[in-house]
């Protein structure tokens, strides 16, 4: 039961929501869709650049390669482990929603935390990878919002 749920939650953090959610907000005429998109795009560009740079310069092995006899439950999309891109992206989206839409959207952090946990449960990240991703994603949004005056 845990494996299918972890896989589904992990897949929800693949990045499709970063495209789908702004489109839905525009489609449904959310008055905050514009500010949300204006925050999300530069934050996401900055996050992806930092994520890629860190992952490919630090080259931390994934648990399956680092721990003898360990087997992950899924195959990761890339080779290295630190930081978790799924966690970073999920917390970036959650923080963006919370900054623009306020308190009621804070519940989205439950989803972001579940995405991070799923990556550990599936064996493709160490807990520190997901924690670093969460801090990175949220921090980039807060910095971007500050720079934009949001």
From TrEMBL:
Transmembrane segments: 12-30, 89-111, 131-149
Membrane topology recorded in Swiss-Prot or TrEMBL: Multi-pass membrane protein
Principal cellular location given in the protein's record: membrane
GO cellular component, one term: plasma membrane
Keywords: Cell membrane, Hydrolase, Membrane, Transmembrane, Transmembrane helix
Catalytic reaction annotation: di-trans,octa-cis-undecaprenyl diphosphate + H2O = di-trans,octa-cis-undecaprenyl phosphate + phosphate + H(+)
Top-level lineage group: Bacteria
SMART domains membership: acidPPc (SM00014)
The keyword Protease belongs to this UniProt entry's keyword annotation: no
MF terms (GO), sorted A to Z: undecaprenyl-diphosphatase activity
Record domain Phosphatidic acid phosphatase type 2/haloperoxidase: where: 38-145
Compartment(s) of residence: Cell membrane
InterPro entries per UniProt: PAP2/HPO, PAP2/HPO_sf
This protein's name: undecaprenyl-diphosphate phosphatase
